[in-house]
Amino acid sequence: MNDLDRLLAETMRDAAERAPADDGLLTTVHRRSDRRHRQRIATTLAGVAAALAAGVPAVVATAVRTPESVAPNGAAVRLVAGWTAPVFPYTLPVGAGLKAPVASMHDGDLIGFFEASEQRHHADTTVTVSSTAPAFTGPAAETTVQVRGHPGTLRTVDVRPAKQFTLVWRESAGRWITLATDDTYVKQQVVGLADALTASPVPVLPPFRLDLTPGGFVTDTVNESTMNFRAAAGEVRVVLRKHRPLGAVNMNQTVGSYPASLTHDGSGVTLDVDVTDWEATLEVTVGRGVAMSDGDLVRFAAGIHILNRSNPQ
User: Which of 79, 96, 202, 260 lies at a CB distance of 3.0 to 4.6 Å from 92, suitable for a disulfide?
Assistant: First the structure.
C-alpha cells in the first residue's frame, strides 16, 4: 500500500466513524420526508357545516385532500365562533324628514345612510365617521362654519342636477364626521342636520350570517355584498358576486352540494363556490401573508349563510 492508498483508507475510515447508525440515518430521512409531505398535503377534511343560506341545502365540507396555504412567517389563523357587528354611533330625530339610518362600513369608516322620507323638501343624506380627516379631490367652494361647537368646512360642488354639499368637522380626538347631501337643503339646514345628530348605536347590516370568523382580525368593510377582515398579516375577504362560470376543469373542491374552485397564486388563495340556488358565486379570498389551511378555508366558507338583503356585485 503506497502513501496515497493509505491516506484514502484513513479518510474513508474517519468518515465511516462519523456517520450515523442505520436507524439514525433512516429516522433522519423519514423525518425530512414527513416534513415535506406535510408541506404539500393538507389533513383530510370532514364534517357537516351549516347551511350557506336559509332555505338552501346545507353546505357540507366533504373529505378532500388539498395543499396547505400557509404563508411564511405567519401565525396560523384560528377560526372562532360567531361575529359581532360594528356599530354606527348616530341617528337623526324623526322630524328631520329622513328614515332611520342603514349602517355599513368601508375601509374602517362607519357609514350611515339616511333615506329621505320624501324628495320635495328633503334629500338623501350620508354620514361617515372616520378616525382621520377625509381627503377630497376636485374643485369645490369652501366655507368655514361652526358645527356642534367645532370649526367645520362646508364644501359645495356645482354639478347637475343638484349641487352637492359636504360638511366636515373634527368631532373629537380620533373622530371626524362627514355629512353629505345636496342643495335640496340650504347651507344653514345642512349645518342644522349635523347639529341634530344624537348618539344612538345602529348595528352594521351584513350580507351574510357567519358561523365562524378569523380570530384576531378586525372587521373593516361590510356592505350588501362584501365582508372584509383585516390583521397585520393581511386580509380575509368574502364577496358575493353575480354568477360566473367557473369551468368544469377548475372544479377541484366540493362544498356541500356545490362545486367549488380552489386556486393558489401570488396574491393568496381563493375559493370560489358556485351557489346555483342564488345564481351567484361566493368568493372567499385569503390574502398573501395570512396563514390559513385549505381545510380551514373550506370550513370557513361552509359556515357562510347568504341573507336575503344581500346583493351580488
Answer: 96
Compute the distance between CA of residue 21 and CA of residue 10 in angstroms, rounded to an integer. 19
**Rounded Cα distance, 241 and 202, in Å:** 26
- Give the model's pLDDT for residue 74: 58
Coil, strand or helix at 194: helix
Q: Which three cell numbers stand for residue 104?
A: 355599513
Collapsed DSSP state (helix, strand, coil) of residue 312: coil
- Is the whole model's pTM more than 0.85, yes or no? no
Burial class (CB in 10 A: 0-12, 13-18, 19+), 161: exposed
Which domains occur in the chain, in start order?
A: 43-83+206-306 (no CATH), 87-203 (2.60.120)
Q: Dump strand ranges (E) for 107-211.
A: 109-114, 125-130, 141-147, 150-157, 164-172, 175-182, 198-203, 208-210
| Cβ–Cβ < 8 Å for 238, 282 | yes
- C-alpha distances (whole Å) from 234 to each of 231, 237, 262 are 5, 10, 19
- pLDDT lower than 70: segments of the chain: 1-75, 248-249
Q: Please name the residues in contact with 79: beta carbons below 8 A apart, sequence gap of 6 or more.
A: 212, 213, 214, 215, 296, 299, 300
How far is it, in rounded angstroms, from Cα 120 to Cα 66?
Answer: 59
